[in-house]
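Aim 2, interim progress: modelling of the heme C-bound target.
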Amino acid sequence: MVNCDGTEFTGSGAGGGGADFVAMGEDVYQNVANCDGCHGAQGQGGVGPGFSGVVTTFGSCVDHIEWVTLGSQGFLDAGASTYGDTNKPIAEGMPQFGSTLTEEQLAAVVAFERVRFGGADPAETLTDCGLAPAEGEEGEAPGETTPGEEPPAGGETTTTVSGAAAALAPAS
Ligand code: HEC
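Predicted structure of the complex, ligand included:
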């Protein structure tokens, strides 16, 4: 079994309920995407907002992933003037990571923010973020990708993550 990036899946999180995805998200946050440079090492905020209320801003992990995928400009381009369930005005400055991070990295860094800074339950979060199957549920987990799916016309905040990420993915 291999990870998304082709490296060997070591199963280091086995028994830990997928804790390795949170650890992967921390690595993305600090080292890969340098989210900490704008949001602070403890998620306390800086150039960008702090994350103590991030699970209120985005009640759904999928919406949180969409925001990080598209960034401020992506939302503006889709015709939105606000983001999140709390309709925060877009002040600009949040980069889009849909073309630089894999879908797994995006989900992991979002799960990390929700658990570590937002106080969300780890197991629920991993399921909500599509990183673990729902308890007693077969088939598609939320956030499961559907390759080739087009974002709905008109954009706004209903653009699907999988469609958005596919649209932004570098041609390879
Ligand atoms: C260059 C600075 C910068 C970097 C790097 C950055 N952000 Fe942001 N982020 C911002 C700014 C500025 C905003 C507010 C954007 C707006 O109002 O349009 C924001 C907003 C957010 C929000 C909304 C939080 C809320 O409750 O309002 C989330 C979530 C977020 N960023 C996640 C991330 C993640 C995850 C990364 C790394 C993958 C990241 N950011 C990297 C600047 C940055």
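The pocket of heme C is lined by residues 33-35, 37-39, 47-49, 53-54, 57, 64, 67-68, 72, 88, 90-95, 97, 109, 113 (CB under 6 Å). The radius of gyration is 15 Å.
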